[in-house]
Amino acid sequence: MSLISTKKIETNVVELMIAVSEEQLQAATVAAYKKNVGKIAIPGFRKGKAPKGMIEKMYGKDFFYEEAVNAIYPEVYEAAVAEAAIEPVDQATVDNLEFKEGEGFTFRAVVTVKPEVKIGDYKGIKIEKNVDQIMAAEVNAELDKLRDRNGRLVSVERAAKKDDTATIDFEGFVDGVAFEGGKGEDYPLVLGSGTFIPGFEEQVIGHKIGESFDVNVTFPDDYHVADLMDKPATFKVTIKGLQKKELPALDDEFAKDVSEFDTLADLKKDLKEKLQSKAEEAAQNEFENKLIDAVIEKMEAEIPDCMIANKANELLNDFAYRLQSQGMSLEVYSQYTGMDIDTLRGNFKETAERQVKIRLAMEKIAELEGVSVTVDELEAEYERLAGMYGIESAKVREFIPASDVEQDLYIQKAINLVRESADVTVNKIKKSAKKAEESEEK
Hints:
The protein is α+β, with helices and mostly antiparallel strands. It has helices spanning 22-36, 52-59, 65-84, 136-149, 200-204, 252-258, 264-297, 305-325, 330-337, 341-347, 349-369, 375-389, 393-399, 402-421, 431-441; strands spanning 2-10, 13-20, 93-100, 104-112, 118-119, 126-133, 152-155, 165-174, 177-190, 212-218, 232-246, 299-300, 423-430.
């Protein structure tokens, strides 16, 4: 193989003119002959025994050329890319295939390449890190959730109130005609839960066991059944049972029942620590996102559309794989949500664009900083991935190439460098005060 010429024909698009020698071509045609001779019948020869020259004499000298070229192409193209020192980001378009007697052949490959990237000062970026401080109110809210989950239902003989569980029979009618799916028996409805159509639960409140009454509502205009959208309906309802939830007392016995702690004080302390840990993690994630956004703003690059499209396809495929692991295909999900595959792919475009920008920016920073990945670091990362997946590291190597793992470490080192050099101001914010400020803004 020889690279005849390399020419930039437009932004991020390069033309390669590539020559393949006669020796390479003939070696590939011999391989194609050996692969296919068993399927070729020539008069006077047993099937699979016809000489290569005889087949070419009957069918033409170029009989094996197509398969030979397809076999040669990956190797010669990769060699040309390496010699041209370019980094393709999409499949090449190949044309102008020309054979010359005794000289092999030439062809043209046009390929989109990784864009040139410029980046401003990425060290010492000023960033605020806002950390919510967990207060007693948040701890008490968690305790309330625990009490609610551990409450018990007891029957009551009175008018229904908000938060009661009413056991009801119901049947719905539109224009006096019962509609499909509008009937239920012995249905436990938590009043105020918003489970039923807006306005339904409020009209059950105030009624007692044994009462039958009408509930008049209008279906929302975004209701999941098209025939019922925005339609007025009447439900005939009978209350058959009524229960309220009794919450356990908030004391040491409660702490023993719901946790490994012997006292309520220890339970509260543990809840506060866990909530604070989550708040710290959320603050760190927000801080890193703001930092990365600041880096992206300092980057200049004309990003090819294909890079974003390819990343969106990758994200869609990952999503499809997750769906499959849950027993659902992408096609079924598409039908269920009413979104076609192109719409689903489009939903990933914004994320794809950001991820492409992050990678380009961090690759440039890693290049400028002379970042490298050692063999020990690569091994440690494989071990970490093995632990995460719960399989042997050798298995991880089978489905994640070393080049991909190395590249991810390369990028992560650049992110670490930017983070460690950042000028960070940490603000500790009381959540109750923060909520008050947000309410005033609204």
